[in-house]
């Protein structure tokens, strides 16, 4: 059954999307999942992103921004230092970062995918300890390998899948979401895609299309009962942005920063307890690390005064990916009989209609 997404509800969103409205609209990018829903306490999984597909191991230029660093993204120090992302990206729960990292290295060794003699993979996390028993370490090596090997392009699943399986967002069920923006040819024709793992926010903050939706949906908010605006936000958000625009690492760091604005457009203030870490990479310049006999590589880049449309695409794709992660999600009961409801579609539509912010329906 096709999952409902933000645009299916008539939510007005800025910009034109790519064909699948997904990070996979950027040519070469593939995404794989392992979703673990077992017994009463396993509600977790793994998401893998291959920047150039599982068969092309050429590094990509990348940049990282930590909006609020109460979280983990392994390999970030080398991306910051060297400007390169080497290998697949993993996203999982907080206590499974180690096994995902180690399995990615083993997969790289087995598949001859090491760029250097060593590997320092990028693996990010958010904590799913409300619905998932973190301390039972449900993610195993075979789950990671399945996500690595099953990655695909085209339309990808959202909501309660992959690393996002057990996550919450604005005290509703959150999870995995994606979106893309296709720039018009006069602005370069580039594609910018976002994939998020959402696990942040308090109900009173939730904003959709500029409307304070959370103020109308106070029931069943597990932490705040829809009130207490000074309650600590101790969730997290991981955003991965991919583009085919030729950008250098320092420019990609600037793109990664714009994910903060996409997050803010959904209402978040970025709490002290939130691990909000964002990475952007470019699939352009495949030969950048293969210079001539003097080590000189010929690369292309967009000038800074042409970056604004890409910045906008990053903001809007992040915002929509967060909304998609919630709207595609389903109610879930998990560890210790905790039950988290998905955001109610028809109530959201009614609120937006009341504020004249419903389109197409």
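^ structure tokens above, recovered residues below v
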């Amino acid at each position: 059954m096709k999952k409902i997404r933000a645009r299916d509800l008539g939510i007005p969103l800025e910009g034109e999307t790519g064909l699948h409205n997904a990070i996979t609209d950027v040519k070469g990018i593939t995404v794989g999942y392992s979703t673990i829903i077992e017994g009463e306490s396993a509600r977790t999984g793994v998401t893998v992103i291959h920047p150039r597909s599982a068969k092309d191991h050429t590094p990509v230029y990348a940049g990282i921004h930590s909006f609020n660093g109460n979280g983990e993204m392994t390999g970030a120090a080398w991306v910051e230092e060297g400007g390169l992302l080497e290998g697949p990206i993993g996203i999982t729960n907080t206590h499974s970062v180690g096994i995902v990292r180690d399995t990615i290295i083993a997969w790289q060794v087995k598949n001859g995918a090491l760029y250097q003699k060593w590997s320092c993979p990028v693996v990010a996390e958010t904590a799913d300890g409300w619905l998932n028993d973190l301390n039972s370490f449900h993610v195993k090596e075979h789950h990671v390998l399945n996500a690595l090997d099953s990655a695909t392009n085209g339309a990808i699943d959202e909501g309660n899948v992959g690393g996002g399986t057990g996550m919450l967002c604005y005290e509703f069920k959150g999870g995995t979401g994606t979106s893309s923006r296709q720039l018009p040819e006069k602005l370069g024709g580039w594609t910018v895609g976002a994939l998020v793992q959402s696990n942040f926010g308090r109900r009173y903050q939730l904003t959709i299309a500029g409307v304070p939706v959370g103020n109308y949906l106070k029931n069943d908010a597990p932490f705040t009962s829809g009130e207490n605006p000074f309650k600590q936000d101790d969730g997290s958000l991981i955003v991965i942005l991919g583009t085919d625009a030729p950008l250098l690492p320092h420019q990609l760091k600037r793109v990664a920063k714009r994910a903060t604005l996409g997050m803010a457009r959904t209402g978040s203030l970025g709490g002290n307890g939130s691990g909000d870490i964002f990475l952007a990479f470019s699939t352009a310049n495949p030969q950048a690390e293969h210079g001539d006999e003097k080590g000189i590589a010929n690369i292309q880049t967009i000038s800074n005064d042409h970056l604004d449309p890409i910045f906008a695409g990053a903001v809007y794709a992040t915002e929509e990916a967060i909304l998609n992660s919630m709207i595609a999600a389903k109610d879930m009961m998990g560890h210790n009989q905790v039950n988290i409801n998905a955001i109610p579609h028809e109530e959201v539509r009614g609120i937006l209609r009341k504020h004249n912010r419903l389109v197409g329906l």
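The longest strand covers residues 60-69.
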